[in-house]
Amino acid sequence: MFNILLYVGQQEQNLELIFWALGILVAIILLVALVWQRRTGNELEEELQQLETQKHKEVEFDFVLKAMGMSVWHLNADTGEVFYDKDFREKHTDFVEATEGDTYDENADLLVEEDAVRVRKALDELCAGVRDHYHEQYRIRAPHSSKVYWEESYAIIADRDINGKPLRIVGTSLRIDSRKNLETALKQALSKAEESDRLKSAFIANMSHEIRTPLNAIIGFTSVLPDIEDHDERQELINLIQENNSKLLRIIDDVMNISKIEAGKEQLQMALFDVNVILDELVNRYQSQVAGGVTISTDFAAPHQEINSDLNRVLTSMEHLVSNAVKFTTHGSIVVGYDAVADHRIRLWVRDTGKGVAPEDQERIFERFYKVDEFVPGAGLGLSLCRTMAFSLGGNVGVQSEYGKGSTFWMEIPA
């Protein structure tokens, strides 16, 4: 009986040990599971953070591309096919949409011919591994239009095979119309600055000569005037002094008039006046100044013709045209007149039988300081002033001439 009890107690002790062992094993398993779960959770959390970071980077990347108006594309170096990953270029009505999977040769067909040859050559060299990067600016023909717009592209080799041959090209493209417009504006500004510098030099040289000439005459004749006792000779010197005074004042007036008009400091003084009256007075004033054998007369389209304009600018312009005709006409006639008003505009003109103007000079004579004949007195400002004044009145000036036979200078303004 005792042995039986002893056996049962031993069995219970063994079961207890087994339960303890199982409990410890379960505890170990649970502890390992908790550790593994914690570690897995940390890894998942890190992956989620990385995904979130990557998402933010992609958003930032897209934002930068969009802000810059760029597209990102890749090119298969073997097939020449082009695929766009992102495209944030400015898509105006003139935009040419590229087709996914087109070859770069097909895309190059959209370019202006002279640019297409250069772009194809650069991409061929990049795909062949001759060069490791690509940068080109080119013009694209707008659809159904003669207009073009500018783009700029960069590209590099992204993947190579084991032999170093390029497999994939990655690049970016963006429109650069505004930059090209700015470059054009800067070039024009530079050209204007250089022209301004040239005109300044010409102005100084011409003014120095043209002012000195009458001024020397005035000073010289004035210095000898007290020593002249003969009345006729004395009067002749006085007339020469007055003539040179007038020349000097006219040069200064021309410079001041151009400066005031271009600076906007001299406003138009509009008034109603009769064209016949002012042209008659102008012709009478120059009757005594024409060369011997030359006649000066008028030819009006109407007995009276009133217009509403700036009297001083019209009179100054016509005075320069008549003065030039008198200066360059040594035989024949000078006629001053106007055509009948048409479409609320009137054309005033001065026709002469003088030396005329060669075709290559007919536009340039309206530039400042340009003189066809450097030996003829004058600063080269008169016709430039006429054009400036005509423009300020909403009109224009021009010339019809045949070299050696004469000219017709005209000014057309609103009536």
Structure characterization notes:
There is one protein chain. 50% of the residues lie in helices and 22% in strands. With 415 residues, it is α+β, with helices and mostly antiparallel strands. It folds into four domains: 1-67; 69-175, Beta-Lactamase (2-Layer Sandwich); 189-265, Helix Hairpins (Orthogonal Bundle); 267-415, Histidine kinase-like ATPase, C-terminal domain (Heat Shock Protein 90). A hairpin with a 5-residue loop joins strand 4 (148-160) and strand 5 (166-175). The radius of gyration is 45 Å and the shape is elongated.
Key features?
elongated, 4 domains, five-stranded mixed beta sheet, Helix Hairpins, Beta-Lactamase, 415 residues
Strand order of the largest sheet: 2-1-5-4-3
Terminal-residue CA separation:
149 Å
Which architecture of the largest domain does the CATH hierarchy give at level 2? 2-Layer Sandwich
Quick one: CATH superfamily of the largest domain?
Histidine kinase-like ATPase, C-terminal domain
- Rounded Rg: 45 Å
Q: What percentage of residues falls in helices of 4 or more residues?
A: 40-55%
Sheet/helix structural class = alpha+beta
